[in-house]
Write a structure and sequence with these properties.
Elements (H helix, E strand, L loop, with lengths): L4 E5 L5 H10 L9 H7 L5 E3 L2 E5 L3 E6 L2 E5 L7 E7 L3 E2 L5 H22 L1 E7 L24 E2 L2 E7 L4 H7 L2 H12 L3 E4 L5 H15 L6 H11 L5 E8 L2 E11 L2 E9 L1 H5 L2 H16 L3 E6 L8 H10 L4 E5 L1 E5 L2 H19 L2
Parallel strand pairs: 6-8, 14-15
Antiparallel strand pairs: 1-3, 2-5, 3-4, 4-7, 5-6, 8-17, 9-17, 10-15, 10-16, 11-12, 12-13, 13-14
């Protein structure tokens, strides 16, 4: 029997129906949730174009989170691309042939969006925390390759959570344990944050980005987090304080027996006195208590030439994480233009770095 389905935009589906699908689909994780898509859509020059395939009798059979992004990487030639944090997730009980049909239909719809928005390329990143991509069922080859993407994979730090707090402590590098002890000796304590801490968190975020020379995210992004996923119980926040002053904070997505280090922020005193490490340790202890399976600390940047990203990567590694694939892919729709943009970006980067 032939099965018919239509591809429609996320705005045509109600939130509960969308999230019910995400909760059950093995390839879906927090990045597919309605709340995360809403938060990401508050970023500058991003428009939500997420799609779902709907079977007429049984409902949703596949989804893809999708953002149309206007990039400012090249001031000479501004351009657009499509970005999918999470990639396609299909219903877990679909037969292989039907799953291929759903993926094909969604990709055809994505291509139509790319044509409409004049996107130079389509990018996708798969969450290593989705049940289908975790050990022991983790794929050895990038699943995006089978749907026409070229491989742009990198690596991320994954920490396996043991059932014993002591073994987690001993698995941390010495510098991480030293930083935690330093913070405790400096009188810093950690508490769980709540919705009332939005302004406090945003102040730390602004201080963090201004210190590093980056442009802060809009306050509405964090408002979406604090008023959406935090209220829904999908993320937890820890705040490090001393004498009533907030020094550092961490925001962790908590979903499907796994945790992702979503955002973090710290003042200068928090960095100096180890408050950021104490926040991480507080979260890891909670993961042990909750019997979480694994914790993704974030993308690895292994080469010292990566500068501050390398230093942040080394900080994440110090808590005992191991390298795991971060599957990424790209479809070039205008390869000549994209190559030209890459060249412009490289020239600007070398000019700014004095190379």
């Amino acid at each position: 029997m032939d099965i018919h389905f239509d591809v429609v935009e996320r705005s045509d589906i109600d939130e509960a129906r969308w999230n019910e699908f995400v909760d059950s689909a093995p390839e879906a994780w927090f990045w597919h949730r309605w709340e995360y898509i809403d938060a990401l859509s508050t970023w500058r020059d991003r428009e939500d174009r997420s799609l779902t395939a709907v079977e007429r009798s049984s409902g949703l059979v596949g989804i893809i989170p999708l953002q149309a992004v206007r990039s400012h990487r090249s001031k000479v030639v501004p351009y657009r691309f499509l970005d999918s944090m999470g990639g396609i997730a299909v219903r877990g009980d679909l037969a292989p042939r039907m799953a291929r049909r759903v993926r094909s239909a969604l990709l055809e719809a994505v291509d139509r969006v790319a044509e409409e928005t004049k996107a130079v390329e389509i990018r996708a990143t798969l969450s290593p925390l989705a049940p289908a991509f975790r050990p022991p069922s983790a794929p050895r080859v990038n699943p995006l390759l089978s749907t026409g993407f070229s491989d742009t994979s990198t690596s991320t730090w994954i920490l396996r959570i043991d059932r014993e707090e002591r073994s987690m402590w001993e698995g941390m590098e010495g510098r991480a344990r030293t930083a935690v002890r330093k913070a405790e000796q400096a009188g810093i304590t950690v508490r769980r944050g709540g919705a009332a801490d939005l302004d406090l968190y945003y102040r730390l975020h602004r201080e963090t980005y201004e210190r590093t020379g980056a442009r802060p995210h809009p306050r509405v992004y964090f408002a979406a987090i604090f008023e959406g996923s935090l209220v829904s119980g999908l993320n937890r926040i820890w705040i490090a304080e001393r004498d009533g002053e907030a020094l550092a904070a961490g925001n962790f997505a908590w979903y499907k027996d796994a945790v992702w280090y979503w955002t973090g922020a710290a003042g200068s005193a928090g960095l100096r006195d180890g408050a950021t490490s104490l926040v991480q340790w507080a979260a890891i202890r909670a993961m042990v208590q909750d019997r979480v399976g694994c914790y993704e600390l974030g993308e690895a940047h292994l080469h010292p030439s990566d500068g501050k990203r390398h230093r942040l990567s080394e900080f994440k590694r110090s808590f005992g994480g191991e390298l795991a694939p971060l599957f990424r892919g790209r479809i070039d729709r205008r390869p000549v233009l994209r190559q030209a943009l890459d060249l412009v970006s490289l020239i600007r980067h070398r000019g700014g770095s004095g190379v």
